[in-house]
Design a protein that fits this description.
The structure holds 2 protein chains of 2 kinds.
Chain A lengths: L1 H45 L19 E6 L8 E6 L3 H4 L4 E2 L10 E6 L20 E5 L3 E13 L21 E9 L6 E14 L3
Parallel strand pairs in A: 2-3, 4-7
Antiparallel strand pairs in A: 1-2, 1-5, 3-4, 5-6, 6-8, 7-8
Chain B lengths: L1 H7 L4 H27 L13
Classes of the chains: A alpha+beta, B mainly alpha.
Chain lengths: 208, 52
């Protein structure tokens, strides 16, 4: 009897360990399958291919659609993620998500993107390395927007002011294009949020 | 429990080891692909958005 209890406890422990492994690495497999699909969708639209029936007038993106390609040279030369429209758990499993209603890439206002830090491919695992002056490159349909990091800080999960059109200043009318990245902090915890802000430095129209 | 299972496995030690390995692999696959995806949304160790 006691032996069985012991054996069951060890089994439970092993399953728990396996679950941790699943969270860290297993979940990324799903993201790894979804990202190529989103990136293909973007590539097709950038190439001016046929628009799908559910597509929107220019400038609007349907929920679950690909918004832009995000690149952060500081994290790696081959670092690229397709940003998806929406920040529900289902969206964020596929990649970094754009807050619906916040500015689109390059627009005046705040282009807000959230991404996982440790699970589902952990796209924002290393954004804590970003320092003022580092580049965040956003390839949208119409142009390439290069933002420069201005600030990194840690906030409470309720700090809605970081997603305002002028970050940190609710109600203020925006006059420039900003970007805000949010993820969880500290790593492996949901206690706080790590936030990186940047402003638009350069716009390069896509050649037709 | 495992002793009881072991005695029920067929064949000699080598065959038993192989059968046991397959059983472990099957159990791991069931929890990995069947159970863990259902548990994952409950574990919020990676909340990334700001909300009210």
């Amino acid at each position: 009897m006691l032996r069985t209890v012991g054996e069951l406890s060890i089994t439970a422990g092993l399953i728990l360990l396996l679950f941790c492994a699943y969270l860290l690495w297993g979940t990324g497999a799903y993201t790894g399958r979804q990202q190529p699909l989103l990136q293909e969708e973007l590539a097709r639209e950038m190439a001016g291919g046929p628009r799908l029936a559910q597509d929107r007038p220019l400038g609007r993106v349907r929920l679950g659609g690909a918004v832009a390609l995000l690149r952060i040279p500081k994290i790696g030369a081959d670092y690229r993620y397709a940003v998806i429209e929406g920040v529900s758990p289902e969206h964020l499993k596929k990649g970094p998500g754009h807050y619906p209603g916040t500015a689109l890439p390059g627009q005046i206002g705040n282009f807000v993107v959230s991404g996982h830090r440790t699970t589902y491919g952990a796209p924002f695992n290393e954004i804590d390395k970003l320092r003022p002056g580092d580049e965040i490159v956003v390839d949208a349909r119409e142009a390439r927007y290069t933002y420069r990091v201005t600030r990194q800080h840690i906030v409470q999960p309720t700090a809605l002011e970081v997603v305002e059109p002028v970050p940190g200043k609710p109600g203020r009318r925006p006059r420039r294009a900003s970007i805000t990245l949010t993820t969880c902090h500290p790593e492996y915890s949901a206690a706080q949020r790590l936030v990186v802000h940047g402003v638009l430095a350069r716009t390069e129209p896509r050649e037709e | 429990m495992y002793g009881w299972l072991w005695r029920r496995l067929p064949g000699n030690t080598v065959v038993r080891l192989l059968v046991a390995a397959v059983l472990v692999a099957v159990a791991a696959a069931v929890v990995w692909y069947g159970v863990f995806p259902l548990l994952e949304p409950i574990v919020t160790l990676d909340e990334v958005t700001v909300t009210r």
